[in-house]
Amino acid sequence: MTWLVTGGAGYIGAHIVRALAAAGMNPVVLDDLSSGHDGFVPGGVPLVRGSILDRPLIERTLREHRAEGVIHVAGFKYAGVSVQRPLHTYAQNVTGTRLVLEAMAAADVAHLVFSSSAAVFGTPDVALVTEDTPKHPTSPYGQSKLIGEWLIGDQGVATAGSEHPLRHTSLRYFNVVGSGDPAVYDSSPHNLFPLVFEALLAGKTPQIFGDDYDTPDGTNLRDYVHVADIAAAHVVAAQRLSSGAPIEPAYNLGSQNGLSVREIMDAMARVTGIEFTPVVGPRRPGDPDRIVATGELAARDLDWTNRYTVDEMVRSGWEARRRAVA
């Protein structure tokens, strides 16, 4: 039996694929390579090139590989850009998720781990976010992830009395950084770590997007979590689904300890040895002031823990990116 990973050639998906393979869970990747890289897929792991909007392809892949479950990572993940491209965002993240669910139902595949996001919370008015914190997304991206959770929950209810009831969980990522394998790096043109790395590699000064947020130093305060920890949590979630163990409908994969963008910049200079004073630019639309989560439920059920310091996060990501250009 195998697990299909949609978006498995991307930064996060490729780490999940490696973690599944290490656990003997036979991953198969479905990816259109619009933002992923075929070189991120390990040798021996099947790569099916195609879109999550291609329902027949998803169903065919599930059947051909006798998939036991799906880890649905594929989607459009840029909150700021989603404000300018809402229709594209909803097509990829809402329609795409619906089609994955349809294909799973047709192929009698009943286990699903969904890649959700801290963006479902918007700008919470609490110091630490829990799974029950009210959801008020501030971007089409956040809205699309929340709708995805609703779709999956409704399908779970609809199939509860069937021969193959959908068992599922949604893992809400916070700021995923670092690298667990030097062959895989974050190539996003919008995420903080790769933006800083690209600037440093080009001899340019990194930029902070806004310093007038309602935080102690004026820059966004976020949870930063290592991608290898994120991948490990997916493996445990998949194993719980397969075994029939109890599982919550959603988990926050947070660190409980936020860091500001300015603090990340300080770590960047410290680890890379490149001194710089970041340029301050305008805010990006859809970016909340602060969002930090407890992660207590995930620690209880998914062996979730933060195994890396901020310097280790920066160092692993920097080394992977430099290797790519070596």
UniProtKB/TrEMBL annotation:
<dbReference type="InterPro" id="IPR001509">
    <property type="entry name" value="Epimerase_deHydtase"/>
</dbReference>
<comment type="similarity">
    <text>Belongs to the NAD(P)-dependent epimerase/dehydratase family.</text>
</comment>
<comment type="pathway">
    <text>Carbohydrate metabolism; galactose metabolism.</text>
</comment>
<protein>
    <recommendedName>
        <fullName>UDP-glucose 4-epimerase</fullName>
        <ecNumber>5.1.3.2</ecNumber>
    </recommendedName>
</protein>
<keyword id="KW-0413">Isomerase</keyword>
<dbReference type="Pfam" id="PF01370">
    <property type="entry name" value="Epimerase"/>
</dbReference>
<keyword id="KW-0119">Carbohydrate metabolism</keyword>
<keyword id="KW-0520">NAD</keyword>
<dbReference type="InterPro" id="IPR005886">
    <property type="entry name" value="UDP_G4E"/>
</dbReference>
<dbReference type="InterPro" id="IPR036291">
    <property type="entry name" value="NAD(P)-bd_dom_sf"/>
</dbReference>
<feature type="domain" description="NAD-dependent epimerase/dehydratase">
    <location>
        <begin position="3"/>
        <end position="254"/>
    </location>
</feature>
